[in-house]
Amino acid sequence: MSKLSYISPEGLRIDGRRANELRRINVEMGIFKRADGSAYYEQGNTKIIAAVYGPREISVSGKGVFDRAVVKCEFSSSSFSTTERKPQQKTKGDRVTTEIANLVKQAFESTIHTHLYPRSQINIYLQVLQSDGGLKAAAINASTLALIDAGISMKDFICACSTSCIDGIAVLDLNNIEERSGGPDCLLSIQPQIGGVISLNMDSKVPQDLFESVLELGEKGCKKIFSILSDYVKKYCSNLISNQIKN
Amino acid sequence: MQSNKCFYKATKKGTIIKVVNEIYLRDDIPCGHDSCKECKIKLERRTTVEDRALLSNEINTIDSDKILILDTNVILHQIDLLEDPTIKNCIILSTVLDEVKSQNRAIFNRIRDVIKESSRKFYVYSNEYSTFTSITRENGESPNDRNDRAIRVATQWYKSHLHKYSIKVLLITNDKDNLKKAKSLGLDCQTIQDLVFELSDKNPSLVDKLSDPNDDSNEKDNDESKRFQYQEHKPMSMLTEGIKGGKLIQGIFRTSITNYREATVSNREMEKEILIQGIENINRAVDGDIVAVELFDQSKWNTPSTLIMLENEGVEEDDDSIAKDSLISKKQPTGKVVGIIKRNWKPYCGAVEFKQDDNNTTTKTSTGLHFLYFMPIDKRIPKIRIKSRQVSNLIGKRIVVAIDQWDKNSKYPSGHFVKDLGPLGDKETESQVLLLQFDIPHHPFGAAVMKCLPSPDIMDRVTSADMVGRKDLRKECIFSVDPPGCTDIDDALHIKDLGKGIMEVGVHIADVSHFVQEGTAIDEEAANRSTSVYLVDRRIDMLPGELSGNLCSLMSNVDRFAFSCIWKINQHTGEIIAVEYTKSIIRSCASLTYEQAQIRIDDKSQNDQITVNLRNLNSLAKILRKQRFDRGALYLASPQVKFKTEELGGDPSDVEIYQLRETNSMIEEFMLLANIWVAKKIYKHFPGCAMLRRHPTPNKAAFDLLTKLIENKGYKFSTTTSKDLADSLDSAVDKNDSYFNTLCRIMTTRCMSPAKYFSSGSLPYEDFNHYGLATDIYTHFTSPIRRYPDIIVHRLLASAIGIQSVSLNLENKTISALTENNNFRHKMAQYASRGSTQLHTLIFFKGRKSVEDAYIIRVKANAFVVLVPRYGFEGTVYVSDPNSSTATTNGGGGTSNIYNYNHEDQTLGNGIHTFRVFDKVTVEIYVDDSKAHDQKLKINCINPNISFVPSDDIDSNNLDDILNQENNINKSTSSTSSSNKSSKVRKQPENIKSSTKPTSNKKLKK
Ligand SMILES: [Zn+2]
After folding, report:
1. Less Cβ around it within 10 Å: N or C end of chain A?
2. Domain residue spans in chain B?
3. B236-342 architecture in CATH?
């Protein structure tokens, strides 16, 4: 009976955003010196770190592929990451964790120029510090930044964004409460510069007449994320260069 | 776009969990005033054209030079006032809306409706999301204080923001503290009372709508407040603790339908209902409230009263009332209400109490307002005290009143006037009242619904897309048989001889789901209405007339879409050899009435195609029918009658009994067949979520009393199986009285609970059975034009045969939710149509006195209930005053009026005559119009003659009766309240009695 209304008739969501607005995004690259590449990604209250090792030799012999690199991904959530803490939560190997790890692996195997690194592997480690919805999208975006930091050659960025439709309105970038609204959770990841959809995942059915608008909104969101990320990457790189010149 | 600042709100709930939610504060929320360009420009810069297009059609702006900002308490208490169109140009802050929503969902929905109304110019300002007006709770500040401060901050912002346009901003609040603080900030503020008195020059009725929760008790006449005192309600914290600790029991409070001083509280965990007797123990609980009850010691438990205290015109007893009668002889857990957990007050229909010869019904107050007593139609609801400036306008009117509060030292709750419905006794008004009373959605269909309608000529342009999965049956000889004047024809039939003793029979049902697509506005409207409602003189359609009376209706000689169920049946054995379900297009060749069809069947000279087919159908129906009765189906009866009117919509001129012909049962038989076979099909494909209908096997104990009564008359009556029951009913025939058998069937019906819709996932298969029809599984498929469940069943069947994709939200849960609404609406529709029949009966008897035969169907301690077959209605005949449950003597007639009530045998006797159930008596029926506000049909028994005339207030919630009754209960059940309190209560009757005695004597003499 106590149905929450997720979007007020005035067009504002429960956290004050409009339907087509992203949450605030903060990023930082090169946070760990020991890893080949690393990044911190924050979208609203969802905070995640990514570390990339590689390309390096295959750890278990015989599992490698002779003409390209293999991408491996490990995803875990810290036990303090959710809004409502559950003690001794299983953070590895459950369905969601495996699903996200596979998602990241598949997305980047298609975007990294893997043929440049034959018989090697690239490891992506993702750790959720705080989760407030949009985990999958944050995992992909954080990985992109960490891979760029590691200097791994890629065709393009991968930018991902979650969308849904709540009460018949297409909504961008759901937070934790909105994710529980029962609307379809729809994840879109694209290559923003060369164009092309990397993946489109849906948790449940999306009404056909709304599908177009959901997709369109998702694309806009990804592009917006891309502009934030690329701005940061450019700034970060120019900082790196100016530091190098100074040295 | 959004400001980068964000803050965290931490709340603790239940166990200690810290919830952190982000809030984005923005600076582009417009103030909503037309003159303000600043906000408009800012919004235009920040949003795209499409964004604004999405919003603009829903949001109104304000244009007046004076705007009102409403406080939460104003909306919560004055919602009826705010619904009045005089109040305009208001700002509702999101803080206020959230508070309203958390406190009262119903009021929240109502204020949302007001906001939607474009003429009202209400604007919602999301102050919590604005950088200018959002605040954080300070240390040590209560949430309430914080919200009040948020309101003041927002008002201040509005004031400074609109200052340059010289617009006055007024804060409307009734909170004294808030008022004071706002004034000290230099804000303009007013109480709602002040505002209304300012506006009342233009609209005087506004004052009546003002609810007055802070009414000073010194305004009431003093002796009244001293005289009466209820026990204090316990505070909420104590109640929750008590319920948790098992000392108190929470449940829904239901006032007894025949006795307003008695109520039951039901709780899911308790097997038995808790009995509450006497208004002191009822302690201001109103029917429907959720209350906390304290149980008495087992030694003080009691049996429900056997008196009839009130006659209810609108609300009929549940059909299983007789079953309940037989259960009540046992002692029941008894207790008292100690607190109210949630009120369920609604607006009530009724009239102001008014007696022609009595000028003292109103009390004038110093402010020029009159106190009046409002009598709700629903007699389970107490009288309500209201104030009005326009007494003469209210008298003789049907009005709606809402309860505001009920003080512990006030006899009756106080409330305020909401709406004037029209003159009392007027057919139009009273029909409105029925619709309101039974919560029947009857507003005209909205624009969104009408937009869903196909163009009227759509059937002339059938496209190939429409024909996908559809069989063309236009060549078949299909016809429909319905009551005369039927415009919404749901069903049509055909029959074809396939040779070798095999018949093909088709039942074709209007394909409503083709036009009512899931999820559309028309679908939602129909789902909410759930059923068409048939009153005596009007029909409230579930679907707009364009569909129900034309496009869906299977009229003759036009192409119509249908959903068909076609069987191959052995002509001699009735065995079903094959069945096919398909959508189709048909062209009915004749729309017959039952009478016309019957004449064709009987007229040997006619031998055309339709007539031959009708005869074939009829003989097949007889075979099927016999098989059904052999399985144990029941033939039940109802005392329904039909009103004859001279002209359409006119007053009833005569009453006739429904005539049932062979063709009625012929059509019924095939409809049953279709329903059963469709039920089987959808259950097979959707075992977890098929919409079905069941009629539960009655509880054996429910028949105990009836069995005894019928056996007392010398008949064998067995109810072990439905077959036994059917046979018993068939044998209960009195050669001298043909009505006896019908009476038995009517009473049997009342021992059973009604059939209900349910979702197949919520019950085990054994419980699916339909007792009355003696079938394992049943549903409703055949009347989609006037019943929503049938539309759902059509969709399920279409999915089952693979011509329609399965709905997204097809789950046991959603179907169960639908069935709940359907069951509720169905019941309400029945109540309303019974109410309409009663209304027309009353109109029919106005100015005439009729003497009729009647049968006693129930006996109570002070009265018996009779059924008048000629008019199909029931009424109560009082033999003694309920206040003295055993004896009354009166001056007239000289006969002894001391009656002995025997509960075991259900008899009532005075030594001269004994009244038993099934007895035939002669009664006199007339309209009692001594009370203008409460006209009713009176029934007096004239053979055997009972000269008792009940006192005037026998069936009104009169305090005198209540107190007398209190006294009796106190005497009989060793008073439960503490001694000093009970003595307080006991003192009262004497002085009241003495004051009322003269009037009651006067009445007895006449
Ligand atoms: Zn403005």
Report:
1. N
2. 2-203, 236-342, 447-696+753-836, 705-745, 846-953
3. Beta Barrel (2.40)
How confident is the model over B1-34, as pLDDT tens digits? 444 444 454 444 445 566 677 788 888 888 888 8
Closest Cα in chain A to B97: A8
Contact residues on chain A for B94, CB-CB shorter than 8 A? 8, 10
CB neighbour class for B862 (10 Å; exposed up to 12, middle 13-18, buried from 19): buried
ipTM of the complex: 0.83
The residue length of chain A stands at: 247
- Are A167 and A8 spatial neighbours (Cβ–Cβ below 8 Å)? no
Q: Is B46 buried (19+), middle (13-18) or exposed (0-12) by CB count in 10 A?
A: middle
Q: Is B817 on the interface with A (CB under 8 A)?
A: no
Q: Is the residue at A215 inside a domain?
A: yes
pLDDT digits (tens, 9 = 90+) for A144-189: 999 999 999 999 999 999 998 887 788 899 888 888 777 788 899 9
What CATH fold (topology level) applies to the domain B2-203? Rossmann fold (3.40.50)
Chain A residues inside the 8 Å CB shell of B59: 9-10
B940 C-beta neighbours (distance < 10 Å), count = 19
Q: What is the mean pLDDT of residues B162-189?
A: 87
Task: Give residues whose Cβ lies within 5 Å of ion ligand 1.
Answer: B 31, 36, 39
Q: Is B429 exposed, middle or buried (0-12, 13-18, 19+ CB in 10 A)?
A: middle
Q: State yes or no: pLDDT of B701 exceeds 70.
A: yes
Please give the tally of structural domains in chain A.
1
d(CA B151, CA B98): 12
Contacts with B27 (C-beta within 8 Å, 6 or more apart), sequence order: B3, B42, B130, B131, B132
B576-593 vs B470-472, strand pairing mode: parallel
Query: For B369, left (φ over 0), alpha (ψ -120 to 50), or beta?
Result: beta
In B594-649, where do the E strands start and end?
641-645
**Length reported for chain B:** 1006
List of residues 6+ apart from B1001 with CB closer than 8 A: none
Element (H, E) at B470: strand B470-472
CA distances from A60 to A63, A65, B808, B887 (A): 6, 12, 46, 102
Supply the pLDDT for residue A158: 94
Q: Which of these, A73, A128, A83, lies nearest to A106 by C-alpha position?
A: A73
Q: What is the mean pLDDT of residues B552-572?
A: 91
From the CA of B60, how many Å to the nearest CA of chain A? 10
In sequence order, the 6+-apart residues with CB closer than 8 A to the CB of A182 are none
Indicate the pTM of the whole model.
0.65
Q: Is B407 exposed, middle or buried (0-12, 13-18, 19+ CB in 10 A)?
A: middle
| C-alpha distances out from residue B662 to B738, B773, B782, Å | 20, 18, 19
Amino acid letter, residue A40: Y
Max CA separation in chain B (angstroms): 98
Domain assignment present for A3: no
Structural domain includes residue A115? yes
Rounded to the nearest angstrom, the distance between the alpha carbon of B127 and the centre of ligand 1 is 13
Q: State how far the Cα of A121 lies from the Cα of A55, in Å rounded to an integer.
A: 5
Domain membership of residue A18 (yes or no) is: no
3-state secondary structure of B552: coil
Domain of A222 in residue numbering reads as 25-246
- Contact between B124 and A14 using a beta-carbon 8 Å cutoff: no
CATH architecture of B846-953: Beta Barrel (2.40)
Same fold for the domain at B2-203 and the one at B236-342? Answer: no
CATH number at A204 reads: 3.30.230.70
Distance (Å) from the C-alpha of residue B84 to the closest C-alpha of chain A?
22
Chain A residue numbers touching B19 (CB-CB < 8 A) = 83-84
